[in-house]
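hey all, quick one before standup. I had two proteins in the batch that finished overnight and I want to keep them in one place so we stop losing track of which output belongs to which input. First protein below, input sequence then structure tokens straight from the run.
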Amino acid sequence: KAVMRKIADQVRAEAEQWSQMQEMLCQVRKEMEELQSCRDFWQNRALDSDSQIQNLHSSVEGWRRKAISSEAKLKNLQAE
């Protein structure tokens, strides 16, 4: 009888440990999903920022060409 009680206690203890492990696993899964969501958010922000930077570089290049063209026109007008 004592052996059966000991086995039953051990089974209960292992079942409790298993339950705790399952809870921890669920918590880890939840945290991983949150981390992936944050990663996706910041990755999208970085891609948007890269796109904006490229657009700004294009604008700067366009204004630089206009400035060079205007300087050339001014020199031509001054030469006349």
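OK second protein, same deal, sequence then tokens:
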Amino acid sequence: MEIDQKIQDLAFKKYVSENIQVPLYLNVHANYFETEKEDQFLDHLLNYQQKGLDLANIVIEISEQQFSGDLDLLTHTFKYLKTLGVKLAIDDLGTGASNLDRISLMEPDILKVNLHALQSESISTNYHSIIYSLSLLARKVGGAELLFAEIITNYHFHYAWRNSGRYYQGSFLSPSASDFVEMNILKERFRKDIQQFILVERKKLTAKFQLAKSLNLQIQGKWKQIKKNRELDVVIDSLAKEMEHIFFRIYVTDEDGFQKTVNFIHVNKNWMWDKSAKGKNWSWRPYFIENVIRMKEEQSGILSDIYNDIETGERIRTFSYPLDESLYLFMDISPMYLDEHEDLLW
């Protein structure tokens, strides 16, 4: 704590003397806040407040994974600090096993996500899902914002931006230095980079909407041709054979999520019937009910975001389509098709 305090002293003195008005992040071990050192830390802050330090600019950065004490005591301390204007950031997300329940109870202002894993060629597809989950968590814990660290390439910067990053940190933006960086030094560069990100994003969204539009028209036309007084499984099998270059799994449910057909699985250029899935209920899946209502109201299909398939673990998209008032078609797009159309991979 003594070494930390000396480093903080140097930062505070420079911060106050130069009248800096940007957030100042203090990396503090979470366990300090349940010992007598808590009072030392608070006294240290209040002492510099009297010297002109605006506590509204102070962000205390802790690692939730390091804390092993009384969570109620810790959250009580943070609530008190917030009354002084101090903000809380949870550090090292995206690098290990974090307890999302504990993070929610702490009500942080900022979630700091480490992008070091993006430097690995063997990065798990689950990593992208974790980052997406953190962006959702940020919105649900009182409007917390995301800070992305370890940004060392333009790709990292783009990745952080498109995953709802509010703050950015890393050598790609500015190397470590003993002086505070001039506030607007990156303004023009940021403007150009973000304009490029927007162009890329528009291209990807356009590809997504064009695919959805094309699939809507194809399925609408083919459904009119093949639907007759035949067993539903036979009808969907005929439809599957017309669409096999895109999809690897097709099935139909009712509006309550009960599967009304077998699973049609594309294997070695043939469609296999998996009867074990018939009768299963899928209403528990994220956005299922919302999407069914949306399809019913709009009478149009929906192309999902990228997600990890439950059975294969691969990243896929699903196109869902309202066949009539009570039947809904779900068509899982093959990873191979997505790989061939990289604009659909984001």
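Flagging for whoever picks this up: Residues 216 and 267 are 24 Å apart (CA to CA). The mean pLDDT is 88.
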